[in-house]
Structures are given as structure tokens and as C-alpha cells.
Amino acid sequence: MDGDLAAFRAEVRDWLAAHLTGEFAPLVGAGGPGREHELTELRVAWERELGAAGWIGLGWPVADGGRGADIARQVVFFEEYARAGGPGRLSHIGEYLLAPTLVAYGTPEQRRRFLPPIARAQELWCQGYSEPEAGSDLASVRTTAVRDGDTWRITGQKVWTSLAHIAQWCFVLARTDPSASRHRGLSYLLVPMDQPGIEVRPIVQLTGTSEFNEVFFDGAVTAAANIVGAPGDGWRVAIGTLGFERGVATLGQQVGFARELDAVIAAARADGRLADPVHYDRLVDAWIGLRVLRYHALRTLGESAGANASVAKLLWANWHQRLGELAVDEPGAMLAEGEPYALSDAQRLFLFTRADTIYGGSNEIQRGIVADALLGKVGRR
Amino acid sequence: MRFGWTADQVALREAVRDLLASACPPSVVRAAWPGGDESSVEALWSALTGMGIPGAVGELGLDEVDLVSLLEETGYAAVPLPVVETAAVAAPLLAATGDPGGHLPGILAGRTRVAVAGGLVPYGRRATLVLHLDGPAAWLSTLDGAVDETTVDGSLAAVRVPKPSGEPLTEDAELVGLAADRLALGAAAQLVGLGRRMLDLTVGYVRERRQFGVPVGSFQAVKHHLADALVRLEFAAPAVYAAAWALAGRRPERGRDVSTAVLLATEAAREAARTAIQCHGAIGYTVEYDLHLYAKRAWAVAATCDTDAHLARVAEALDLKGAAA
């Protein structure tokens, strides 16, 4: 590691030690998998704290409000963040999904308008893709947008919209040309959430808590200029959003995984299950799997993700789901509980990880992409 | 030799399935969660009592083989009451010990429900007595001093009871072991039923749910998941029935067979839950949809089974234990 990088690591570590304290002290370890609902207001304030110090958009060009940090520095930031027990992030949808989309497909005005508030966490984003009739089959979205003078007027329903209840903006995939074939009639719109035409209803999850929502658009409006790409070009932009390189964030996610695995091992040690060779084998397998995730992320760092994003998703989703099962693999682990529906960490991890192989593109969809793109498409779909 | 059901057993199973379809729909399982309307849960017990189920072993003269598919149906419906505990464990044990406390008439009349203590007491909040099975001894206690415990499956109505003292029932290790095996068999049967329910729900859903212009169930990726889950269940079910047969005949290998049934049924039910949630997609991860009621029950019932102990018992029966040590 070069000296500059070590200095950078020290800077991150010192900053976190100095700031993840006092009013923010309750956030250590909060908001992780299965606890996405926790301490939301304080976490929003924390995002602003991060934004003010320049930790959001670290790798963006300086001209876009970022710090132009190289990949190694971005990785260091994520590692140190996770190591310090930094809380689950709320600005990531803007930072990792919308921002690169605007850099790739947006206008200079859109970049100027939207990137700085993302970097300062003044505006949080949510993703308006899935609908009741458009899940895996995203191109079948029915939400419509029609031009009405200087605005787009949007009507329809989105679902499974994470963080819609706290976001100021939503990037919405909507049908703007009903006569065009299904992939061609879509547009990518940027829509403000705080308006009478939008209603957000929380959906209660297996965990008994709520992080995602239904979002109803009833003649909601956004300025005509808030379209990314041309009308009818929304599919290309939307798929682009999903394909940006996320290896850096993945490495940070893995530090969180390592903490979860440590906790599972500590629990096994405490209740004597380390002496059980079968359990022991499974813990070793989990550790090996995590190493593989890390090597895979390091190997593909900086490459455009494309279909490799599907490989990465399949690797970590299955690994994490198995970790959830390992966490409750002792008699009674799924029973014991204190407060009403105050789940244990192990139970929460288990329940949350049931969704890992579904959200963000199910395993079945990912395997289809891997088969088509990496193995070469064979015959009919 | 055909290892199949008699016409009477099939008829009984169908009658119970019909009864539970109307008396224990998902809305009743939901009502059994905290804050729900307990009266529908009480009505369910009345319906079960009306069919003679609490006293099935004594009154209807059923043995474990007759009982096992009935218990499977109570799993299929996720009955939120101690039906295995009362009908398959407590009632036969009371009958065999001469019912010193005179509880059997209350059980037959539907007034008395008996839960069984493990670490927690599942359905303790809906029971009038708690049966403790501990090594060679069995005794009954009341629920005085019981503390409510909510669990991942909120309909389990579990309690924790203080260090038990109460009415001694027997110190006949054979009888107590038989009761413990009946409890394990009941759990295995319910897990198979729960697995079948989750699979049925999922098959119904993937037939209706359309993406890419076709039902999602028409995709091989989905079909193969469901076929694998079915194969697991079909692999577990005969082992559960064989264990019932071994218990009914008091065969010497019954412990091994009950443990085998538990091991297969816990895995099959967990696999069915995983498959069902996966094939439903996000809707299966919500509480507004019914699937979670059955998945959480399956996880809870599986968690009451000490699979390590069951593995050890099978290993011992196969004379593998000594070799490993």
C-alpha cells in the first residue's frame, strides 16, 4: 500500500472516529440488513454529515461535486466505514444509481442541478421501476407520462420502492408512447416526491418492519426538462442504471458481511456449537465463500459490470442467504425472543436474507442474463 | 406388501381437510397473531372437538397410523392450537397412566387443552395445562406464573413457565419416551402438511401471475424449483408414515424411525418455504400475503425439533456412534 493511501485510510478512520459519536453514537451498527427501518431521521442527518465532509460522490469528477478519488481510495472509504460500524446508507440510490446515469445519459444542466444535492445528501432518491404487473418483466410497465405544456403528467403505480417515504425525488420508468412496441415507448423521468399527485404507502415485510413502499401517481407532475435521454429512450437508460460498476460498494458490503459472519461464529462459540464438526464445516465454508466474494470483487474492480453484475449478485445473494440460515441453525433459534416482535439479530438476518435472492433482479433473472450474455444465447428464450 | 392407506383412513383425512378448510382458513391463522380475534380460534377448537379429535385415540380408537395424516392436515391448515399435544400426546398418556387427575373428560369435552413444555411452551397461552416430559418422568402443571413470549411465528402464542412443579403423572420411562416420540411424529407430520400448503399456494400463484406474457409457472426455472420441493416432500412423507406405523406397532426400531422422519420433514419444510418465497417474488416477503403465516409456522415447528438429538439417535441405532468417538 502506498503511503498516500495509508494516509487516506488514517484520514477516513479519524473522521469516522470523530463524527460517529455524540448525537450519532446510536447509529453504530444500525440500519443494516433486517434493520433498515431503524433511526431513519438520525440517519438522514448522518448522511448530511457525510455529505458536508465530502464522503458522498467520492469518486465523481470534481466538476460534478465529487472528489475525484481513485478506486483504491473509494475501497478504503467503504472498508473503514463498515469497520467503524457506520449505519446503513440512505443516499446510495442517488449516489450509485442515479448519479452515474446522469453522467452517462444526462444533460449538463441535469448534472449541475441534481449531482451536488446528492453529494450533500440534501436530496435523497428512490427508484421507480417495479410495478404490480412489471416485476421481473420490467419492460411491461404501465405507468404513463403524457406531455402537458411544460410538464410531464404521470399516472400509475410503483411497488417495492425502497425509501420512497423519505426520498425527495424518484427516477421513474414510465410509458410515454403507448403505440410503440413495449421497450421503445418508455421514458426515464425525474419526479419530485413532495406533491399532491403522489401517495406513498408502506408495505410491511416478513420482518414486521417496513422499508419499501407502494407509490401511487395520480396526475403527478414534473418539468418537461426532467427527462433523461430522449422520449422513448427510457429502457436503454434504465438498463444502464442497473449496469454501472458497483465493485467498490460491493467491497464495502462485504465488510458488513464479515461482521455478520463474525457474530454468527461468536454465537456458535458461546453456545458450544463450534465443537460440532458439521456446524464447524459450515462456518469454514461461509468464511471461504466470503473470501471468494472478495477476490471476485477485486478481480473485476473498475470494469464495466454488464453481465458480470449478475454473476456478482448470484454469488453474494446465495452466500448471504445461507449465512442467514446458519445464524438460526441451532435448536430454538427461531423461537426465542424477548419483546413483541423485537427479533434477535440472528432471526432478523435470517428473515431479511429470504429476500436477497429476489430483490434487485431475482436469481432466475440473473441466471438468464448470465446464460444469454456469457454463455451465448442458445435457441428460444 | 402394500404400504398404503385404508379407505377409512382416507375418508377421515378428507373429512378433516374439509373441516379445516372452512374452520381454519388463513384468516383464522392471522387472527391467532397478537391483537387478533381469539374467538375464531376458539371456534376452531370447538369444530375439532365436534369431530372428536381431542379424544381421537381413546374414543375413536385411532392409532398413530390413523392419526398421522390427520395431524398432517392440521399442519396444512397451520392450526394455531395444541392439537398434536392434546390429541396425540397428552390424551394417550393420560389414558395409559389411568388419568390420576381426572383430566380426560375435560379434554374430550373440549374444555381442556394441554400444551407441552420444551424450552418454550408453544400454544401455552391457549392451553389449560402444561405437560412436562423430562427423561423418565412426566407431570402436569397449570399455567400459573407463565410469562407470554412472542416468537417469529406470532400465532404460536408461546409462554415460558417457571421451574415446573405439579401433578406427577408417571415415572415409566417407556411411556414417557412414547409420548415424546408421538410429539416428534406430530411435528414431522405437521411440517409435511405445512410444506404441502406452501407448495399449493405457490403453484396457485405461479399459474395466475403473468410476466413476459405468460404465467411465470411456465418457465422451467420456476417449474424445477417446485418439482424439487415436491420431491423433497414426497421423500419425507413416507418416512413420516413409516414412523407412525413403527409407533403404532410399538416396534423396537420406532425411535430410529421417528428421528428419521423428523430429520427429513424439517429439511423438506424449510426447502418448501425457501422455494415458495422465491417463486412468489417480493409478494412472498410481505405480511399482507398469507404465505408468511405458513413459512413462519414451519420455521417455528422445525425449531422445536432437536435435530442434533435426532441425528444422534439414528447414528446410535446404526451403531455408528461408537465408531465416531
UniProtKB/TrEMBL annotation, chain A:
Domain Acyl-CoA dehydrogenase/oxidase C-terminal per the UniProt entry, residue ranges: 232-375
Give residue ranges for domain Acyl-CoA dehydrogenase/oxidase N-terminal.
7-120
The residues covered by the Acyl-CoA oxidase/dehydrogenase middle domain are 126-218
Cofactors needed by this protein, per the record, are: FAD
Q: Which domain of life is it from?
A: Bacteria
Q: Which UniProt keywords apply?
A: FAD, Flavoprotein, Oxidoreductase
Q: SUPFAM superfamilies, alphabetically?
A: Acyl-CoA dehydrogenase C-terminal domain-like (SSF47203), Acyl-CoA dehydrogenase NM domain-like (SSF56645)
The UniProt entry's sequence similarity note says: Belongs to the acyl-CoA dehydrogenase family.
PANTHER family assigned to the protein according to its UniProt record, in alphabetical order: ACYL-COA DEHYDROGENASE, ACYL-COA DEHYDROGENASE FADE29
This protein is called Acyl-CoA dehydrogenase family protein
From TrEMBL, chain B:
Q: Where is the Acyl-CoA dehydrogenase/oxidase C-terminal domain?
A: 185-298
Keyword Flavoprotein part of the UniProt annotation: yes
Keywords from UniProt, A to Z, are: FAD, Flavoprotein, Oxidoreductase
What are the names of the required cofactors? FAD
One Pfam family this sequence matches: Acyl-CoA_dh_1
- InterPro entries from the UniProt entry: AcylCo_DH-like_C, AcylCo_DH/oxidase_C, AcylCoA_DH/ox_N_sf, AcylCoA_DH/oxidase_NM_dom_sf
Entry's family note:
Belongs to the acyl-CoA dehydrogenase family.
Q: What is this protein called?
A: Acyl-CoA dehydrogenase
Instruction: List the lineage, top down.
Output: Bacteria, Bacillati, Actinomycetota, Actinomycetes, Micromonosporales
